[in-house]
Design goal:
Helices cover 72% and strands 0% of the residues. It is mostly helical and 422 residues long. It has a single domain, classed as MFS general substrate transporter like domains (Growth Hormone, Chain: A, Up-down Bundle). Helix 3 packs antiparallel against helix 8 (189-200).
């Protein structure tokens, strides 16, 4: 199967213009949006009536942990695979990996209950590499911030929307909790195929892009080691902060149904999407504005300030909610905005600008995947600790404590990091 087609087939993709940004950004947004339909719908179910599950750990928690382990392992694999993959193979890789994840969802539906976590592990295992493969089409361009912001808006919006679709399938179409994830993924398969076709048609970065953002060829292990040798302390600070943001974000995402239920919105399928839409719009506008900063070192400094502001908003809004000064919907939107302002830059523009500022040719994917692998390893560890005997905090109070502690620690890390940038 050959996915790539000529750029001439898509006139909008021929030059770095508004048409190109809308076309490329839309294709990337849709591709990653579709991926979420294979990863997150199962979290819309509570799985409260799984009678044959006899293990001490909650069934849904077991599913989340199993998928997270597969997803985290995929991130570690992606450090090598994604950073070394040629442009010609990306489209087939995206479709093939997501296809494997859908087969795992079918297995989830048909396997006996004790074996279902194995299916979720297999579902997560291919999906962790999709972000880097999609972002590789966008990095190293003068318009990368705008394109990356559109792409990042997908994971802000998509999780809520696919959970709304999954919840709707269960309530309106009487689809069972076990088959709902596979059917949700199947609904989004045409979007995935069209989006990958669009991405594969994009022209490579122009000479002007390369002059400003350096070339982005695949990076072998020796070059990766050299980069980390030279920039190790800075990368370490950023990765530690990102681990904290990932842990908060992943917990909020995976247990949104339980958190909203505790807040009194358990019967509202629309709340998942309604709460995330304003977050996506504001985050996209703020991060896309970074494209106006041409100097890469200055852009890195401004990105640090945005991350700091996001971390402060997480802590301040959570404290205000705890004191009764902010309502539940306002808190979830404000803390979510802070979270995505802090979390999102690490997935694209921060490391893209770091590579550009270094002056070294190479993809930012391996830095993103080092951070992602560490972040999801942290998420798995947190969930295991959350379910140790003697830990009795409910979902809501655990999330409040996590948000307050994570915000404080990440602010400290980013202040040290920004000091190194001055």
């Amino acid at each position: 199967m050959k996915v790539a087609v000529s750029a001439a087939a898509f006139p909008a993709a021929r030059k770095d213009s508004l048409a190109f940004i809308l076309f490329a950004g839309g294709a990337a947004f849709s591709a990653y949006f579709a991926m979420y339909a294979f990863r997150k719908p199962f979290t819309a179910a509570t799985f409260a009536d799984v009678g044959s599950w006899t293990f001490a750990i909650d069934f849904k928690v077991a599913l989340v942990i199993a998928q997270l382990i597969g997803y985290a392992l995929s991130k570690f694999i992606g450090v090598k695979v994604v950073s070394e993959m040629s442009a010609a193979r990306r489209g087939v890789a995206i479709v093939g990996l997501i296809g494997l994840s859908w087969i795992a969802l079918v297995l989830f539906a048909i396997l006996p209950v004790p074996a279902k976590p194995v299916a979720m592990f297999l579902n997560g295992l291919p999906l962790g590499m999709i972000w880097g493969l999609v972002f590789a089409y966008l990095e190293g361009r003068r318009s990368s911030e705008v394109l990356a912001s559109i792409l990042c808006a997908s994971f802000i919006l998509s999780s809520g929307l696919v959970k709304s679709v999954g919840a709707g399938l269960m309530t309106d179409w009487q689809i069972g909790e076990m088959w709902m994830p596979a059917i949700t993924g199947l609904l989004f398969m045409p979007v995935l195929l069209l989006s990958v076709l669009g991405l594969s048609s994009l022209p490579p970065p122009s000479a002007e892009d390369i002059a400003e953002r350096v070339a982005r060829p695949p990076v072998d292990s020796a070059e990766r080691r050299r980069f980390l040798h030279d920039y190790g302390p800075s990368v370490t600070l950023l990765v530690l902060a990102y681990v904290l943001f990932t842990v908060i974000r992943d917990f909020r995402d995976n247990f949104a149904a339980e958190i909203w239920e505790a807040l009194g919105y358990g019967n509202s399928a629309e709340i998942f999407t309604a709460s995330e839409l304003p977050i996506a719009v504001v985050t996209l506008v703020i991060l896309a504005s970074l494209v106006a900063i041409r100097d890469n070192r200055r852009a890195l400094f401004v990105i640090h300030l945005i991350v700091l502001a996001g971390a402060a908003l997480i802590g301040a809004s959570t404290l205000a909610f705890s004191l009764g000064w902010l309502g539940p919907v306002g808190w979830m939107i404000a803390s979510g905005l802070g979270l995505y302002l802090a979390y999102t830059p690490f997935n694209a523009m921060l490391f893209d600008r770091l590579v550009a500022a270094s002056g070294r040719a190479g993809t930012a994917a391996f830095l993103i995947y080092i951070a992602d692998a560490s972040g999801y390893a942290g998420s798995v560890t947190l969930l295991l600790l959350r379910n140790l005997p003697g830990v009795s905090l409910d979902w809501l109070n655990f999330y409040i404590a996590l948000a307050l502690a994570g915000a404080a620690a990440s602010i400290l890390l980013m202040l040290v990091s920004i000091r190194r940038q001055i």
